[in-house]
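tokens incoming
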């Protein structure tokens, strides 16, 4: 189905969400016709955040908003869906548009497999009726489904349109760029060189894929790295849990701006505990680049100032390799929690692969390596 038909059939004038690669035609179309416009289209920090924004829109206008997301975000909407939207509470209707990663029978990455299996079941448990949109779904079929859902929406309940891979298409072209010169993969190469044999926790998406290929190209072991292939926004918390239990080992976290935004409260917890052995590197390209390049609000933020306010004793921004190398070397020697924001361009290699080891193999190798380091904290 053409995304123009999809949007026309839904008939809403407000969308908010977190970008998803399977919903890229919709995301690109919304960026083309609205851009970022608080009256019509907002990209949120996480899926719970956009659900609450949608609730506010309904309270202010009485109209039904659309929340778009990948199915991995269902966990983030459970609380607001159950305790805010539900008809036993405020009865606020929302149309969820959900990209179905890991659909049973469709090959996908390991972090999507179980999520794909429980996607429809979770919606059912939340009393959110769903309709599956596939490649063969016609505009008329979608119209009929939405007509049947009108009684549900009128009763203050939410519905979900679950979008299969390739179900939506868009012929338009939207270019995403920011003007910075460093490429993320090159930044990660410099981080890996500076870290040496120190453990690295890397965030979900292309950053972990690039780190894996960098180790392979350098004939290095993958045991030094924990690749957070899912759980967007949680890599810094994983790194904190490791750092406090390995206080004599420098721990590095490679984070992204979209991931940082998704659970930014983690910075406050890290700052409050202030592990002296943690280096938090945030690679900021101001975009959800892994899923298509749609913008984040991080391009407008002063991340070092936020980090310092959260208790990080040292935080800095760099946008050149000369500055990056100096700060990485200093961080390795510094006996203090450090944040380095590296501003970089949007983009990656077209032939970028994926890890050739399983998630469990990655975990086992990483744990065995950590076990051989210093003892746990008393």
């Amino acid at each position: 189905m053409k995304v123009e038909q999809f949007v026309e059939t839904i008939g809403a004038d407000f969308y908010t969400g977190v970008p998803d690669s399977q919903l890229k035609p919709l995301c690109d179309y919304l960026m083309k016709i609205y851009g970022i416009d608080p009256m019509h289209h907002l990209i949120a920090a996480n899926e719970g955040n956009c659900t609450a924004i949608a609730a506010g829109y309904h309270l202010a206008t009485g109209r039904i908003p659309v929340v778009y997301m990948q199915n991995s975000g269902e966990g983030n909407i459970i609380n607001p869906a159950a305790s805010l939207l539900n008809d036993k509470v405020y009865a606020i209707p929302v149309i969820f548009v959900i990209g179905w990663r890991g659909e049973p029978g469709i090959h996908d990455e390991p972090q999507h497999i179980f999520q794909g299996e429980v996607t429809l079941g979770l919606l059912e448990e939340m009393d959110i009726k769903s309709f599956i949109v596939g490649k063969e779904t016609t505009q008329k079929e979608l119209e009929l489904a939405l007509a049947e859902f009108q009684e549900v929406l009128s009763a203050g309940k939410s519905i979900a349109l679950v979008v299969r891979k390739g179900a939506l298409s868009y012929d338009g072209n939207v270019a995403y760029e920011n003007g910075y010169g460093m490429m993320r993969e090159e930044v990660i190469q410099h981080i890996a060189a500076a870290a040496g044999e120190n453990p690295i926790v890397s965030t979900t998406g292309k950053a972990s894929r690039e780190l894996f290929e960098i180790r392979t190209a350098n004939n290095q072991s993958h045991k030094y790295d924990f690749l957070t292939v899912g759980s967007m926004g949680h890599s810094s918390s994983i790194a904190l849990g490791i750092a406090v239990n390995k206080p004599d080992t420098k721990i590095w976290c490679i984070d992204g701006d979209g991931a940082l935004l998704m659970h930014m409260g983690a910075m406050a917890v890290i700052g409050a505990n202030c592990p002296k052995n943690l280096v938090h590197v945030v690679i900021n390209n101001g975009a959800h680049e892994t899923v298509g390049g749609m913008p984040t609000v991080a391009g407008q933020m002063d991340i070092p100032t936020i980090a310092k306010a959260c208790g990080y004793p040292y935080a800095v921004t760099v946008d050149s390799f000369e500055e990056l190398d100096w700060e990485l070397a200093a961080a390795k020697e510094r006996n203090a929690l450090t944040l380095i924001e590296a501003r970089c361009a949007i983009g990656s290699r077209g032939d970028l692969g994926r890890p050739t080891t399983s998630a469990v193999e990655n975990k086992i190798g990483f744990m065995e390596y950590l076990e051989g380091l210093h003892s746990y904290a008393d």
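note: The two ends are 59 Å apart (CA to CA).
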